[in-house]
Every structure is written in C-alpha cells, then in structure tokens.
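Quiz preparation item.
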C-alpha cells in the first residue's frame, strides 16, 4: 500500500504536437499525485511542454539531466 504508479513517456526524437498529444492522453489516465515522467532530446519540446501545461493545475519540474536530454515530471495536484 502507498506505492504510486508512475507513467514514463519517452518522446525522444518526436516533435510537437506528438509529445503534447501523448502527455494529454497520459494525464487522462493518471490519478492525482501520480507522476508522469517525460524524456525528450529537444529543448523546443521541453519548452512547449512547459508552456502548454503550466496553465493547468499541475505540478511540474523540468531539468536537463544530461547534455541534450531533458526530464519533465508532471503530476496532477
């Protein structure tokens, strides 16, 4: 009990709007507090994700975890 399910989306090599569409679908399936971890290799995709979902009631962090690789974590709050 207490284990949270985590959704991981690897959108490496994908360009918008595909990552946005995949994230919206994952959000529909996720519960409050359940992290969705997105990995991308395009800074413009990371920026678009931040801009698109910052207007919603979501908790979001974004970090360049390696040179040219970003990890974005989104949770419903």
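Solution:
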């Amino acid at each position: 009990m207490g284990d949270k399910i985590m959704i991981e989306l690897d959108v490496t090599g994908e360009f918008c709007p595909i990552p946005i569409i995949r994230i919206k679908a994952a959000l529909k399936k996720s519960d409050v507090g359940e992290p969705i971890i997105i990995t991308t290799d395009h800074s413009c995709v990371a920026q678009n994700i931040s801009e698109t979902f910052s207007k919603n009631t979501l908790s979001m962090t974004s970090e360049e975890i390696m040179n040219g690789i970003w990890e974005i974590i989104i949770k419903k709050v």
